[in-house]
Each structure stands twice: as structure tokens, then as C-alpha cells.
Amino acid sequence: MARAVTSTGRVVEILRELILDNTFPPGARLAETELAEQLGVSRTPVREALRQLAAEALVELPPNRGARVASWSQGELESVFELRATLEPRLTGRAAERAGEADIAALDELATRMLAVGSPGPDQDRDALVPLNTAFHGKLVRLADAPAFAAALAGAVRTPLIMRNFHAYDDASMRRSLAHHIEIVAAIRAGDPQWAGAVMTAHLRNARAVMLRTAVAQPPRH
Predict the structure, then answer these.
(1) For 112-133, what is each residue's pLDDT tens digit?
(2) CA quadruple 103, 104, 107, 112: dihedral sign
(3) 17 contacts: CB under 8 Å, gap ≥ 6
(4) In b/e form, how buried is each residue of 112-131, taking b as 16+ CB within 10 angstroms?
(5) Strand (E) or helix (H) holding 30
């Protein structure tokens, strides 16, 4: 049975989907009046929806300038991935040294579920990848047991960026990403920290290429 939602909730869901599938690209203006007309609601639920999406970091609300879809410059993306490439392979290598059988089984289940929902085809569900991916990477960080590294990484990994990242993948990039998760589990099962860290490096390089390609394709702001 379909879940009942309030007008604001419905607007949030619609706008989130339009942002993530790039119908509203990064930097696009989100005019309350136009959106209200297009969605058949008053301006109030649109205004509330934009505030909620701003809290999710999908929308920017600069003072006296109107709402825009959140965007990241090429330089910001480079900085995020530079930090991740410094920290995550090391954390993944440490996780490979510390993972027990139950940990490996949990990671394997997450990687397998990601492969099932993310593989290109009619049943692909990119939105379902987000919590699975978060759980997979989060478990690696916890297994690594390196609080200082984990705290630094937390500042770089932004859920909205990851969500848009998945929607920006072409089929080849998506297949590589999913295969990386499977291979990371294999490396951890083998107790090989260098292998695990190397695959994580490749995984991040793949994600970086996707996001930088998307950033370059963004239209300039006006």
C-alpha cells in the first residue's frame, strides 16, 4: 500500500528525485512560485520542502538570492577525494588485519546486496545503494579502530555528494564500483591489507573520475 504523505512530504520526495536524477542540475535556481505551479500546491509546502532539502545539503538558501540546487566546484571535489584517498585505503588495510569471520560475512552480505540492487538493468535501484554503501564503508572504518582517521574522514564524506555520485555513474563506472566492493571483501578474507588498500584506492579513483566529469559538465552559474 502506498505510503500517505503530507503536501510538504510529497514535494520533498518529488524535488529530491528531480535533483538526484539531474533534472534540476547543480546550481539550478528553484523558484517557489514556479515550483508551486508545476506541482499543483501552494508556495508554503514548497518553501518548507526547500528548507528540508537544505538541511539535507541538497539545496542552498543564500540570503536574498533564492534557492539553488547545491553544487560543488571542481576544486572542492578534488579536495574531498584527495583526503579520502589518503585516509580510506589505510583504514581499509587496517580493517583487513582486524576483521573476524562475522565481520567478513557482514561485509560480504552488504557487497552482494549492492551488486543485486546496483547492477545496470531494469531492476537497478540507485537510491537503495546509498544506505548499503554507507553501511559498508562505515563498517570498514569501525573495524580499522583509528578514531583520529575516522573523525577526519567523517568531515569529507557527505551523504548528498554520495547520493549524487551514484546518480552520475554510467553503466561501466557502476559495474567497476560494485566489483570493487566484492574484491575488497576478498582481500579482507585473504587477510591481505595491501590488496584491500589498493582496491580501495582504485574504488576512489573511479568515484573521483565520475564526479569530476559531472562537475566539468555543470553549466556556469548566473
Answers:
(1) 999 999 999 999 998 899 889 9
(2) negative
(3) none
(4) ebbeeebeeeeeeebeebbe
(5) strand 29-30
CA 220 to chain centre: 23
- Banded pLDDT at 81 (limits 50, 70, 90): confident
- pLDDT band for position 49 (cuts 50, 70, 90): very high
Q: Which amino acid is at 28?
A: A
The CA distance from 37 to 116, in Å, is 38
The sign of the dihedral angle between the CA atoms of 37, 39, 45, 48 is: negative
Measure the CA–CA gap between 2 and 9, rounded to whole angstroms. 13
Whole-Å CA distances, 145 to 26, 84, 134, 153, 164: 36, 17, 17, 13, 29
Residue 161 has pLDDT above 80, yes or no: no
pLDDT confidence tier of residue 10, bands split at 50, 70 and 90: confident
As a 3-state breakdown, the chain gives helix, strand, coil percent values, each rounded to 5, of: 70, 5, 25
- Measured distance CA(160)–CA(57) in Å, rounded: 6
